[in-house]
Design goal:
mainly alpha
């Protein structure tokens, strides 16, 4: 039961009753306002937490994407270096084969 349902004051002073009822109504209104403010604060805190979670998720996604780009770039660099080394080895092999061919031709003629 609300406090505004209090029994009449002794002595029957209507002015005192109205003042008391007014004070009780103001207190009830203040309590309700406080409860509304607390609920609003809770919703705000929840929204901030959700925003922080979303921001963290976005940062994680960006970090994964950046890591993937870095790995892809490193793989491309390794492939390019391997191709250069293979080409260099093939050139060396051609030189050795050419030298061996010339040596064999000279041995047959000589």
């Amino acid at each position: 039961a609300a406090l505004t349902d209090a029994p009449p004051l002794a002595g029957g002073s209507e002015t005192l009753e109205r003042e008391r009822d007014g004070a009780l109504d103001e207190r009830d209104a203040a309590v309700e306002a406080k409860e509304r403010a607390e609920k609003k604060l809770e919703r705000s805190v929840a929204a901030v937490k959700q925003g922080a979670r979303e921001a963290l998720d976005a940062l994680r996604s960006e970090a994964v994407a950046e890591r993937d780009r870095a790995v892809a770039a490193a793989v491309a660099d390794v492939k390019a270096e391997a191709k250069r080394r293979i080409a260099k080895a093939q050139d060396k092999l051609r030189e050795v084969q050419e030298f061996a061919r010339k040596r064999d031709e000279a041995a047959r003629k000589g």
